[in-house]
Amino acid sequence: MAGLTVVVVKSTSEGEVDLEDLRSKVDKHRDELAAIMITYPSTHGVYEGTITELCQLVHDAGGQVYLDGANLNALMGIAKPGEFGSDVSHLNLHKTFTIPHGGGGPGVGPIGVRSHLAPYLPNHPVADGAGPGTGVGPISAAPYGSASILPISWAYIRLVGGAGLTRSSQVAVLNANYVAARLHEHFPVLYTGAAGLVAHECILDLRSLTKETGVTVDDVAKRLIDYGFHAPTMSFPVSGTLMVEPTESEDQDELDRFVEAMIAIRREMDDAARDGVEDSVLRNAPHTALSLAGEWPHAYDRMSAAYPPGVDPGRKYWPPVRRIDGVYGDRNLVASRPLPAHPED
Prior knowledge:
Elements (H helix, E strand, L loop, with lengths): L18 H10 L6 E5 L11 H10 L3 E5 L19 E3 L20 E3 L36 H34 L18 E4 L1 H7 L3 H10 L6 E2 L6 E4 L7 H24 L13 H5 L8 H5 L19 H6 L14
Parallel strand pairs: 1-2, 2-3
Antiparallel strand pairs: 3-4, 5-7, 6-7
Helix pairs in contact: 3-6
């Protein structure tokens, strides 16, 4: 974008920014270095202690630092992004301030900049107060973006207050560490900080288990539906993993229910490795009511499919459809209605 070229900085085996690689690339591109973009805490779920040093390295070369605040629910009331050394801080409202996230949007949130960048912020010809007179013009049709959803975040902030926002960050970090601590014996946690803790999310590494059992991360994600859960983020930022981010929204009973479901699925993985993956309860998940009512061709029983351990029959969630070929769907356009016979139609 804007005629720039992206240079990717390596990560260490612990998932953090490789500062030696960064130094090398800063030196190589010093004369044309424009900026670096970094997410903090990192998407691998750990507070990186080198963030200030990273900002200084880029500044010394004349570059700017853009800090992505996608994980602000790990920072509110705990840290000040402006003191990390960044020049631009994007403070997403999703997750942290009750705005939903997914499906490509809504992606709304304020952008904070240091004073030397303030004259270049966008403005709008129909609203004098929407940016400085020296601005670059509008970047969206509406002067303040998707303003219709902002009252939700405003109401949340007003209701909980400053102390409540700090508390929500503390609980979000506590919840992630609770899940990681309870599951690490069953599913390896890919990255942790120096003290063995994570920040706001933990990555469960299924890759070695897939090699041992043949059960894939897709199988685990689909089986979670039978247990009444939408799967955590799958294969991002690392393929073959599940990234669990409970935030502050779930109480301990719900966290325990999820943990017990994952432990039960781990046992099912061992069963599948012993008895055969292809006709396992995992490979055939999720199980709809229709699939259970008809002819039953599987070696496992219907009750194991429909009511796995811990599922309350009175509160059973029934998935409406079974598994689809997601990769095929991503690569092939499927029209929801017949395409027009002629272009003018």
